[in-house]
Amino acid sequence: MEAMDLALKIPGTLLSPPGKNARLSILIYHRVLREQDPLFPSEVDGARFDAQMRQVSRIFNVIPLSEAVERLKSGTLPARAACITFDDGYADNAEIALPILKKRKIPATFFIATGYLNGGIMFNDSVIECIRMTDRKTLSLPSLGLDELPVQTVAEKRLAIGSILSSLKYKEPVLRQELAEEIRSLTGIDTPARLMMEDEQVKLLSDSGMEIGGHTVNHPILASVDRETARTEILNGKEYLEALTGNPVRLFAYPNGKPDRDYLAEHATIVKELGFDAAVSTAAGVAHKKSDLFQLPRFTPWDRSSLRFSLRLVGNLSKTGAKTALPDGRR
Questions:
Q1: pTM of the predicted protein model
Q2: Which contacts qualify for 141-145: CB closer than 8 Å, 24 or more apart?
Q3: Whole-number Å distance between alpha carbons of 295 and 198
Q4: Which CATH class is domain 2-118+194-316?
Q5: CB neighbours of residue 328 within 10 Å
Q6: Which residues share a beta bridge with 141?
Q7: Which residues lie across from 149 on neighbouring strands?
Q8: Nearest CA-CA partner of 90 in 110, 64, 66
Q9: CA pair distance 11, 317, nearest whole angstrom
């Protein structure tokens, strides 16, 4: 596999040469589990993450996202430039991912939703853990238009979680949490209290040389809230992280991140006005010299096979999915 990884440098370099024609790959991660999750087997565990980082470092030149942004602007990116990013702020980022990144000498950027630090739990994780641990046969949620969801087998639980989260995702954040609490009450499950990082773990990441980026306070779908709420969410998250780490926060990730659905052009403008240098979406593809720095694409290579993972990394280089900035800087 090492020979294959090295061989992939050739097409990778052709697709992403150094300099002004370079293409920047930005990978997304969320959690790095201690062991494989039978409910979500595609979620990355520590051993798999370590193997992936080994492969990434063989094929790509991994650099900090802040450096990549500056070099993208100046046309000085290395060939096969890549960045590693994490969203949300899970405790396993500090406990499992960080030691692996340090061992591999790989920099990463962690985008933190500050409202869930220190014992909080995101609505999606509350739903997942309640359905995972319930011993009920079915679950009825008329408030979401969902009746008699079977939740006995692993497959049924997975389908039920998908249906519930699809119904909840685009609701207003307070209502989202209330409905997640309703599910917790129905199932009688006490959700885990330490899924997300403590302040000290965020500071540990920063002190270890990792970059900390903004991801709002409560992870709202920005397109579903009014402009002032969106601005407050972005600004308050930024200020919290700056006070915590003692460093400026200059990078931002849009919650959920689909352009023109989860966030709009006006939110990119807000991010720029608040002093960020760049922002990332979840549109697949790579960034290039004409990309809008406030709508940079990212992708998640889900493949479990080492070969498919490597091929996916190189294949993504052909997808220039980044939003293009207009000549005068408008969007």
A1: 0.93
A2: 141/167, 141/179, 141/182, 141/183, 141/186, 143/179, 143/182, 144/168, 144/179
A3: 29
A4: alpha beta
A5: 5
A6: 146
A7: 139
A8: 110
A9: 10
φ and ψ of 279, to 5 deg:
-145, 150
Tokens, residue 156: 């049924």
Q: Locate the domains of the chain by residue range.
A: 2-118+194-316, 123-187
Convert 28-57 into a string of H (helix), E (strand) and C (coil). Answer: EECCCECCCCCCCCCCCEHHHHHHHHHHHH
**Strand partners of residue 195:** none
Is the CB of residue 103 less than 8 Å from the CB of residue 188?
no
CA 260 centroid distance within chain = 18
Dihedral, CA of residue 184, residue 189, residue 194 and residue 197, to nearest 10: -20
The span from the CA of 196 to the CA of 199, in Å, is: 10
User: In whole angstroms, what is the distance from residue 177 CA to residue 309 CA?
Assistant: 35
Query: HEC string of 140-206?
Result: EEHHHCEEEEECCCHHHHHHHHHHHHHHHCCCCHHHHHHHHHHHHHHHCCCCCCCCECCHHHHHHHH
User: Could you tell me if 53 and 101 are in contact, meaning their C-beta atoms sit under 8 angstroms apart?
Assistant: yes
For residues 226-238, one letter each, b for 16 or more C-beta atoms within 10 angstroms of the residue's C-beta and e for the rest, the string is eeebbbebbbbbb
What amino acid is encoded at 103 in this protein? K
pLDDT in tens, the chain (331 residues): 576 666 677 777 888 889 999 999 999 999 999 999 999 988 899 999 999 999 999 999 999 999 999 999 999 999 999 999 999 999 999 999 999 999 999 999 999 999 999 999 999 999 999 999 999 999 999 988 888 899 999 999 999 999 999 999 888 888 888 999 999 999 999 888 789 999 999 999 999 999 999 999 999 999 999 999 999 999 999 999 999 999 999 999 999 999 999 999 999 999 999 999 999 999 999 999 999 999 999 998 777 777 788 888 788 888 776 676 543 333 3
Residue 216: per-residue pLDDT: 98
